[in-house]
Write a structure and sequence with these properties.
- The protein is built from 13 helices and twelve strands.
- It is α+β, with helices and mostly antiparallel strands.
- Helix 3 packs antiparallel against helix 4, helix 9 runs parallel beside helix 13 (about 400-410) and helix 10 (about 295-305) runs parallel beside helix 11 (about 325-345).
- The two termini are about 35 Å apart.
Length: about 450
């Protein structure tokens, strides 16, 4: 946000600077160089003496008055050949000199003017020019005055712009903070702005959108939680009924069918338990933190795995220390990742843990088929399964990775998936220093 308004400030300053140059060149094109006007004003006393005192003298007194002016004026007045005056001036000013105008040379603090056009002052006066130099022309001071003038104008523009931008910046900061809080799971976050704020209509629309999203998510959570609880009762009744039926069944084929139905009910019961776990994580405001040793938890996760033909390689590193977090949730996340790796591994599953001063990294790898790069973000969505795992025998319910992701996120950590050196998938849990303890 600060970068946005810094760019806006720089843009305004560049616009004012560009406008200053444009104004200068336009005025110079239409009305002449402003610096010439400044120099003419500064040399106005000498020009006045020439035009109002010397030129108004009769022809036979013109040179006498010029000499008197030369005696009293600090500027120097000379008579030079007209060709020398032409040579001292740029070509664009020759026309004005030929007309008899006073032509300024601000750079050399001088001006030139023909004595007269027809030789009426004295013999040969039409071929001579007056050169006045050492004039009180100070363009440096004039430029400073112009710069100060434009700086004052720029500040006069920037002050209201800064005040206007500040109010916008504060309002946008509020919206940005609300967006961050809402994205972090604080669904009750709202933007409270005054109706006079320029972005107030936008804030109201964001608040209305947040209300709708919060309502939809809460309705979804309540539905999931209610359905999960309501399913428990009929599942329990069916299990009891199947047990009674199995006791009285004498047909082996019927007994086999009853066993299959019991397996289906067990699967359905597991699904309900997963849904309830998901619902609890969605409604959790934060983990129930306690200080626990990390290495014993990792040992429990590996010991609790069902025996499989794959080889399990465990590398826990050194000095894992303690973690300040929810032991059950972190253990659930690691266990889900290990069981997921077992499902797809061909020959080997690896658990590697590394810790440094600022974070702890827990990696679970397998040598299975891996996960395509375009699918790596979606696998953490509830009920999402890759095409090759549609079979419930290997694919589960599609909730294990989602539960692991939510459990780690509640601790401020991250769970990502990448390519493993073993050839399959590599799931990496990163816990920040806020949950670490020596």
């Amino acid at each position: 946000m600060n970068r946005l308004f810094f760019r806006f400030f720089v843009l305004v300053m560049l616009s004012i600077t560009a406008a200053t140059f444009v104004i200068y060149f336009v005025f110079a094109r239409l009305f002449g160089d402003p610096l010439d006007d400044i120099a003419r004003r500064q040399a106005s006393a000498q020009i006045f003496l020439l035009e109002q005192y010397v030129d108004r003298a009769p022809a036979d007194e013109w040179l006498g008055r010029l000499n008197k002016v030369r005696e009293v004026s600090e500027a120097h007045f000379d008579l030079i050949p007209l060709d020398q005056a032409r040579a001292a001036l740029p070509a664009r000013q020759h026309e004005a000199l030929e007309r008899g105008d006073v032509v300024l040379d601000p750079q050399h603090k001088a001006f030139f003017r023909r004595v007269d056009l027809h030789g009426d002052r004295y013999i040969g006066s039409n071929e001579e020019a007056i050169r006045a130099y050492n004039l009180p022309i100070d363009l440096g001071q004039a430029l400073t005055m112009e710069i100060v003038r434009y700086v004052v104008v720029a500040l006069a523009l920037l002050v209201p712009i800064a005040l206007w931008s500040r109010s916008h910046w504060q309002a946008l900061q509020t919206l940005s903070r609300v967006a961050d809080e809402f994205g972090a799971g604080q669904l009750s976050a709202r933007a409270h702005l005054k109706p006079a704020d320029a972005v107030y209509p936008l804030a109201e629309r964001i608040n209305a959108m947040a209300e709708r999203i919060q309502g939809l998510l809460e309705a979804q959570k309540n539905l999931l939680h209610s359905v999960s609880h309501e399913l428990r009762t009929p599942i329990a009744r069916l299990e009891f009924a199947l047990e009674l039926l199995a006791e009285r069944a004498g047909d082996p084929a019927l007994t086999k069918r009853i066993a299959a139905m019991e397996g289906d009910l067990t699967e359905l019961n597991d699904l309900v338990n997963e849904l309830l776990s998901m619902s609890k994580l969605d409604n959790a405001q934060g983990p129930q933190r306690t200080l626990f040793e990390l290495e014993p938890l990792l040992r429990e996760c590996t010991d609790g795995l069902h025996p499989r033909p794959q080889r399990l390689h465990v590398d826990l590193g050194e000095r894992l220390g303690s973690v300040d977090g929810d032991r059950r949730l972190i253990g659930r996340a690691i266990g889900n990742l290990l069981r997921n790796a077992q499902k797809y591994a061909a020959h080997e599953v690896a658990l590697r843990v590394r810790r440094d001063d600022c974070r702890i990294e827990i990696a679970v790898e397998d040598d299975g088929p891996g996960i395509p790069e375009e699918e790596r973000e979606r696998i953490f969505e509830p009920f999402y399964r890759l095409d090759r795992s549609r079979d419930r025998a290997t694919g589960g319910f599609g909730l294990g990775l989602s539960i692991a992701h939510k459990a780690i996120s509640l601790h401020g950590g991250h769970l990502k998936v990448e390519q493993s050196a073993l050839g399959g998938a590599r799931f990496v849990i990163s816990l920040p220093d806020g949950v670490l303890s020596a």
